[in-house]
Design a protein that fits this description.
Layout (H helix, E strand, L loop, with lengths): L1 H28 L9 E3 L18 E3 L3 E2 L8 E6 H4 E12 L3 H13 L5 E2 L15 E14 L5 E15 L2 E15 L5 H25 L2
Parallel strand pairs: 1-5, 2-6, 2-7, 3-7, 4-7
Antiparallel strand pairs: 4-5, 7-8, 8-9
Length: 218
């Protein structure tokens, strides 16, 4: 009888201990978890070699790159599910840009145009150059900057921007030309890392296309 009672007491103690342990684990799991730190992306270090001396093309003013459809300071890395609803824009929860896409694109444009001509900030508007000349003004509006999934496994970067060039005169600005640029680049992987790299490549291509367009103007 004593042995049976002892075993029963031991069983009750184990059950009670297990109940306490389970309650403790449940309490720990209900505690707030630290937020997942988002991965931060940019367009990379750019050219690693020293840039060539500025060419002989006339100076240009690069106005502020504006973005349509979302806040100027938005740093989300966005994607679209074209196979489900291409009209809905989704942000990655665990990834973002180091700056807004418009600011990153402005850097890419300034670096690319600066290889061939002096690039002045928007604050230079109205200031004369050597010989009392006034530089033209380039304004860019970023209309689309996202990773588009055609299937759950396949995606591409889509960059769409509108560039406008104006000539500055003593009496105001005169519109010279405008062009829409659309660039797509395939993403190596169907995730934020693949999208960020593809968007960086597409932005670099767009900056190169704008530079060549400006060179072609009379």
């Amino acid at each position: 009888m004593k042995s049976i009672a002892a075993r029963a007491l031991c069983t009750r103690e184990k059950w009670f201990f297990g109940l306490i342990l389970a309650g403790g684990l449940a309490a720990c799991s209900s505690l707030p978890q630290p937020p997942v730190r988002a991965r931060v992306y940019d367009f990379g270090p750019g050219r690693t070699a020293a840039a060539a001396a500025q060419g002989t093309l006339p100076a240009i003013i690069l106005g502020e790159v504006r973005v349509s459809g979302q806040p100027e300071a938005e740093t989300a890395l966005n994607y679209r599910l074209a196979y489900a609803n291409a009209q809905q824009l989704h942000p990655y929860r665990d990834a973002r840009w180091s700056q807004s896409p418009s600011a990153l694109l402005a850097q890419a444009l300034r670096a690319r145009l600066g290889e061939e001509r002096p690039v002045l900030p928007a604050t230079a508007l109205g200031q004369s150059l050597a010989g009392d000349a006034l530089p033209d003004v380039l304004r860019v509006e970023l209309e689309e900057f996202s990773q588009v999934f055609s299937t759950p496994e396949a995606s591409h970067a889509l960059v769409r921007l509108r560039a406008s060039l104006s000539r500055v005169t003593r009496t105001g600005e005169q519109w010279r030309a405008q062009r829409l640029f659309i660039v797509q680049r395939p993403a190596a992987t169907p995730d934020a890392a693949g999208g960020a790299q593809a968007l960086a490549d597409a932005a670099a291509q767009a900056a190169d296309d704008v530079a060549r367009w400006l060179e072609s103007l009379p």
